[in-house]
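Hi F.,

I've been meaning to write this up properly since the lab meeting, where we talked about keeping a consistent format for the predictions we share between groups. The idea is simple: the sequence comes first, exactly as it goes in, then the structure tokens exactly as they come out, then a line or two of notes. No screenshots and no reformatting. I'm using this chain as the first example so we have something concrete to point to.
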Amino acid sequence: MLIIRPLRNGDLDDLYAMALDAGKGLTTLPADRDLLQSKIDRATEAFSQRRSPESGLYLFALEDVNTGRAVGISGIQARVGLDEVFYNYRLSQTVNASRELGVYVRTPTLQLSNDMTDNSEICSLLLSGAYQGGGNGLLLSRCRFMFLDQFRKHFSDKIFAEMRGVSDRDGRSPLWDALGSKFFDMAFSQADTLSGLGNKSFIAELMPKYPIYLPMLPEAAQAVVGQVHENTAPALRMLQAEGFHFNGLVDIFDGGPVVEAFIRDIRTVRESRNRYVMVSQKPLNLDVPAADRVMVSNRAFQEFRVTTLPSACVGPETVRMPPEVADALQVEGGDTVRLAPLKAGV
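Output, unedited:
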């Protein structure tokens, strides 16, 4: 059985192993044990409410209950831009026209922006390769929306995600090579690491403040603006199925798109409902396709838990579950749980 729970101190080795396997380009989870431990510490403080809710970093682990190992991670940053300036490029157009010459030219540009300041970000999605498929990525991504819905007072109405942009197997970004590297004598991988260590605003403040005219960049750089890394395409499709859309902003390093949605419009939120727990001793076949499963979460904050059950277990007022599932969710008969379809259209 797989279950979502808050990230905890004992997960460092598993998290580090996943970060190593992910390779270069995963800015929020670089393979740095000290940095990863600091994120675990921040998450622990957030769930235990030892820091203000607006500065909370809520990280969730996907645990294989049979082994006790963390095999995936996803997260929510309650607010961005409060401790340091949060930058993106806004993709826009500059229009130049001359009626006398009969010239009308639209030029795409990149302009530094702080538009996402004070908004909530979903981030740090990473799943171990051995567990990819079977709806595990859906559970890891969409569990966050159940938490957002349950505890809306801690988050902004608008939720966004920065998607990983295009880079090659050596970690080189066409946009960085054409733009960022001209202002910093460092490789993209080094700049990306500095960003993960919390130095993104320092780098952005040294970038040009005036609009960047895209046609002045090489075609390879222009082509990746607003595009995602091939490994990130499934995550983008999941978010699009939830109602997220491109908002015209891109990452300042690799040009990856920023997608956003209001909490009330997210599919998982719209289709969630509450049911009473009915613990059943009758054998249940839990091994069903993702399309035939629902996510089930408890209503706890510090001990938030999510797993999946067959849709057939859901009745008009109750949801049946075996004792081991109830124990994993830390619920008892008569408790209220939240349900939502695992896949879009279910």
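Notes:
The chain has nine helices and 15 strands.
The longest helix spans residues 188-205.

If this format works for you, I'll send the rest the same way.

G.
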